[in-house]
Design goal:
- The structure holds two protein chains of two kinds.
- In chain A, helix 3 packs parallel to helix 5, helix 12 (326-337) packs parallel to helix 13 and helix 13 (354-365) runs parallel beside helix 15 (387-398).
- Chain A folds into three domains: 3-257, P-loop containing nucleotide triphosphate hydrolases (Rossmann fold, 3-Layer(aba) Sandwich); 269-411, Rossmann fold (3-Layer(aba) Sandwich), CATH 3.40.50.450; 429-456.
- Helix content of chain A is 42%, strand content 23%.
- In chain A, the strands form four sheets. Chain A has a six-stranded mixed sheet, sandwiched between helices. In chain A, strands 15-14-13-16-17-18 form a six-stranded parallel sheet, sandwiched between helices.
- Chain A has helices spanning 42-49, 72-78, 94-100, 114-126, 142-155, 172-188, 200-206, 224-227, 230-237, 280-289, 303-310, 326-337, 354-365, 378-381, 387-398, 406-425, 428-455; strands at residues 3-13, 16-27, 31-35, 57-62, 65-66, 79-82, 160-164, 192-196, 209-214, 217-223, 240-245, 252-257, 269-273, 292-299, 315-318, 341-344, 370-373, 401-403.
- Chain B is mainly α.
- Chain B has one domain: ABC transporter involved in vitamin B12 uptake, BtuC, CATH 1.10.3470.
- Chain B is globular, with a radius of gyration of 21 Å.
- The chains are: A alpha/beta, B mainly alpha.
- Chains A and B meet through helix 2, strand 6, helix 3 and helix 4 of A and helix 1, helix 10 and helix 11 of B.
């Protein structure tokens, strides 16, 4: 039975308070993730628990004994620490490094016994490093080296294992291997594992519970699924994130989404007719470029719908998996009316969203410039027995601009914005006088578009 | 790789440590006896053995030592013996302190003089020489005593400067060691300028050597160097663990600040004792630890005693060479240590550089 009790700990570096009133308690077989942004006190908390940084207030109690009243060797028999990265000055062999883990169990001048070697071997076999035993430590790869360091920690036969981002320098394969290993040790040997993580997805997959730190205080603690919500991530990390349950691993997965700090301000409003993920990149790019983006009609649960929600793009929505109703269609038309341009993506058409094509042609008739992103041939995405194909042809005939890719589209939108600005600055009558002079200018622009295409 | 092979190999290596130390000690003894034979006066080797036997409690009654002349006995026992022993003691102290400092500072450039010991000793000795202060303490003359005092004062100042609360961070220790050394070297330069007629005595002391060593000097430094060096062996395993970094060492049960302080004290004491009778002999404290580490590995439990013996042997040999190579003139022993050890060290470094990444 092991109980680690962190009892109202305050820590300072010089006069700066870095931890305030940290209070939690863990028992064996707990795999606890310590999460939080840089400077939130994660590493400080580990240092304080590992008897390196004495708290100004409160205590770290190991089975009701304050660890700062114990000798370092006594603590080392109960608690092992795996740092982020270990710089080893002299070129010891891997086995010699692991044997150093036996130090708290040896007296001065005592040479390691067969029992110590056997424990070292067991730890190394467990971390799959026994074959490296006689290799010099500084000749090992990052992953091998970190596994040797973990073996060293295990050779201490600790009851508590503290890890500071144990896999931060490792590739994905090594990360999973080491995390699987730690989880197994935690369960098999009945350890308390406390680990600092920066990677939410790794934490979520392995931790039974978590502590979320913000500015040196516990923001939230408990089961990992309760803690890693998009609200918590937003308020602690100032990052928007999608939190979902993964169908295969059955654990949460978190996708952080970056939001641009200050997009350039533009006047142009663009309405997107999209769906099934065909508008996701465009939405992100256009929102990032500062366009006023709207979209519709999209079914709730559609990928594009979720993207729009995340980017706070106004959407006309429809119930999941159902046909676009008359009401939604009308609302969509109303929204389109406010737009300066309309973009139709290479969305697949079924009878459910055929009405959206109607909306496009309506817009065209009202004089709103429409652009059709024709990336995927309509034959391959028409599930309406040719109806969608027919309407698309009609659009082309009526003067929709067909573009091959997003770059082309964005250049054209750029031009129409310039035009719009000019139209606002200069009264229409005078614009007529200027027309002959304006033409070569427009020609230049067209060249720009071409060259940017060839570059892209 | 066979599964039990690794364990057996490890135990075999550890069990060879004792044998290695016995062999190296025998080599040191032999070197000492052989180097008694080196000098301006030609004394046959058989005579030397007879003189030694005469001084040995049990052998003396079995020997007929009537053929040994009084002069020969005096040369061996009063001139050569203290000198050879001084070489062994100083070499041992500098090499052991070098290992300790390289271990504490985790820096390959660290040597036994890193904390200002040499500069402090130089100032102490220069002051005594230039001011011509003459007194003796327990039969030891002024210059070694003031050199010893100077070096300990310098280390104490360095230590005080670097102290942050109850901790002594190695980076500040290293930097203040360098700063204090430079400052003290400037004082020595000033003293050299105003030394006048005593300049050659001062320069000769600064170059280092064993020309004026007497038995009383040996008796003065013997306990300090033997006890101090032996004391560092207590912390050999802690020095190993220190290689993982101070924080990790603490997590492995090493009382890091205490161990560091004790090792700094022992290292400074033995270095100060050595420098006080030999003057400044460079190279040993830097190169012998590296050389030994290349040859037998980084484990301080064997590295420390091995370096001690190798350092002693090396300096005895170098001093013997210095005495006769341009006879009748003597070369400063520091010249020989650098001339002979440098190329050998470079050879080892090039041969083993792949596995010797410090």
């Amino acid at each position: 039975m092991v109980i680690l009790n962190i009892d109202g700990v305050d820590c300072y570096y010089e006069s700066v308070k870095v931890l305030e009133n940290i209070r939690f308690s863990e028992k064996e077989r707990e795999f606890v993730g310590i999460l939080g942004p840089n400077g939130s006190g994660k590493t400080t908390l580990l240092r304080s628990i590992s008897r390196t940084l004495k708290p100004h207030k409160g205590a770290i109690l190991l089975n009701d004994v304050d660890i700062y009243t114990l000798k370092s060797a006594e603590v080392a028999r109960e608690m092992a620490v795996v740092p982020q990265d270990t710089v080893i000055t002299f070129n010891f062999t891997a086995l010699e490094i692991v044997l150093m883990g036996r130090n708290p169990h040896l007296s001065r001048f005592q040479i390691e016994s067969e029992k110590d070697i056997a424990i070292a071997r067991k730890s190394m076999e467990f971390t799959n490093t026994w074959h490296l035993a006689e290799r010099p430590i500084n000749g090992l790869s990052g992953g091998e080296r970190q596994r040797v360091i973990i073996a060293r920690a295990l050779a201490q036969e600790p009851k508590i294992l503290l890890l500071d981002e144990p896999t931060v320098h490792l590739d994905i394969n090594n990360q999973l291997e080491i995390m699987d290993l730690l989880k197994e040790i935690c369960m098999k040997s009945g350890l308390i594992v406390l680990a600092v993580f920066h990677d939410f997805n790794l934490a979520v997959r392995y931790c039974s519970s978590a502590i979320l730190l913000k500015e040196g205080k516990i923001f939230s603690a408990g089961s990992i699924e309760d803690i890693l919500t998009s609200e918590n991530i937003k308020s602690v990390f100032q990052v928007d994130a999608i939190v979902k349950k993964h169908p295969v691993t059955n654990s949460l997965y978190i996708i952080p989404v970056s939001t641009p700090k200050s997009p350039p301000s533009r006047k142009l409003s663009v309405h997107l007719v999209c769906g099934a993920g065909t508008g996701t990149t465009l939405m992100k790019i256009m929102a990032g470029e500062g366009y006023n983006v709207t979209a519709g009609v999209l079914n709730v649960l559609d990928t594009d719908y979720e993207t729009a929600q995340l980017l706070k793009i106004p959407v006309i929505s429809e119930a999941p998996f159902s046909q676009v109703t008359k009401e939604a269609h009308n609302a969509n038309l109303e929204m389109i009316n406010k737009a300066n341009a309309l973009v139709l993506t290479s969305v697949p058409f079924g009878f459910g969203n055929l009405r959206n094509l109607e909306a496009v042609s309506e817009a065209l008739e009202r004089g709103i410039p429409t652009y059709v992103l024709d990336e995927v041939p309509i034959e391959r995405r028409d599930f309406t027995k040719g109806k969608a194909k027919k309407r698309l042809k009609e659009l082309k005939r009526k003067g929709s601009v067909f573009v091959r890719n997003q770059n082309e589209l964005l250049s054209l939108l750029n031009i129409s914005e310039e035009k719009m600005k000019m139209a606002k600055e200069v009264p229409t009558e005078i614009l007529g006088h200027l027309k002959p002079e304006e033409k070569p200018h427009q020609g230049d622009r067209a060249d720009d578009v071409k060259s940017s295409n060839s570059r892209g | 790789m066979s599964t039990s092979g690794v364990e057996t190999a490890y135990f075999r290596r550890v069990s060879r440590w004792k044998l290695l130390l016995i062999i190296l000690t025998a080599v040191l003894m032999l070197t000492i006896i052989l180097s008694l034979n080196v000098g301006y006066a030609q004394i046959p080797f058989s005579t030397i053995l007879m003189i030694l036997a005469k001084r040995t409690p049990f052998l003396s009654s079995l020997m007929d030592s009537s053929s040994v002349s009084y002069v020969e006995e005096r040369i061996i026992m009063q001139i050569r013996m203290p000198r050879v022993l001084a070489g062994a003691l100083v070499g041992a102290a500098l090499a052991a302190a070098g290992v300790v400092y390289q271990g504490i500072f985790k820096n390959p450039m660290a040597d036994s003089y890193i904390l200002g010991v040499s500069a402090g000793a130089a100032v102490g000795a220069s002051l005594a020489i230039v001011l011509g202060i003459g007194f003796t303490l327990f039969g030891v003359s002024t210059v070694p005593i003031s050199a010893f005092a100077g070096s300990l004062i310098a280390v104490f100042v360095v230590y005080k400067i670097s102290r942050v609360g109850s901790r002594v961070p190695v980076t500040t220790l290293l930097l203040s060691g360098i700063a204090v050394s430079f400052f003290l070297s400037a004082i020595v330069a000033v003293l050299q300028v105003i030394a006048g007629g005593r300049l050659h005595v001062l320069v000769f002391w600064l170059m280092g050597g064993f020309s004026y060593v007497e038995w009383r000097d040996i008796w003065a430094i013997l306990p300090i160097i033997c006890l101090g060096t032996a004391a560092t062996y207590f912390y050999a395993h802690d020095l190993n663990i220190l290689a993982l970094g101070e924080e990790t060492a603490q997590h492995l049960g090493v009382d890091i600040e205490k161990v560091k302080k004790l090792l700094l004290i022992f290292g400074s004491l033995v270095t100060a004792a050595a420098v006080s009778i030999s003057g400044l002999i460079g190279f040993i404290g830097l190169i012998i630890p590296h050389m030994t580490r290349i040859l037998i590995g980084p484990d301080h439990r064997i590295l420390l005693p091995t370096s001690t013996i190798v350092g002693a042997t090396f300096l005895v040999i170098c001093d013997a060479v210095a005495r006769v190579i341009v006879s009748p003139v003597e070369l400063p022993v520091g010249v020989i240590t650098a001339l002979s050890g440098g190329p050998f060290f470079i050879y080892l470094l090039r041969k083993k550089k792949e596995s010797y990444a410090v």
